[in-house]
Amino acid sequence: MHYVRINYISLKEGGANTLRAIQAKFLARDDPEQSGLLYAFFGFSNEDRFCTGVTVWHDQTKFNASAERWPQVIDGIKDILDGEARRDEFEIDSHNFPMPGR
To answer: I want to staple 82 with a disulfide (CB 3.0 to 4.6 A). Which of 10, 41, 62, 92 is the partner?
Structure first.
């Protein structure tokens, strides 16, 4: 099974560039084998006041471990948030993502 997390983040004006830099740094150091993160993508609204991030994980153990870091992530971006960030989590039933190693 694979798992997906969708994060919804409302940003203060000017916060999008800060969040983009944080995301780039995170993705540059990510090792999919170690972290379990298979895919991550982020989209910003036209006015850069809202970000939706989607992460796909290859197993439940690493998916759950990543969820434990959520409070630290939010604490690290609290200065650019406009309201509460929220997230939804799902087990993926079907997909057409290419699979690593295949």
So the answer is: 10
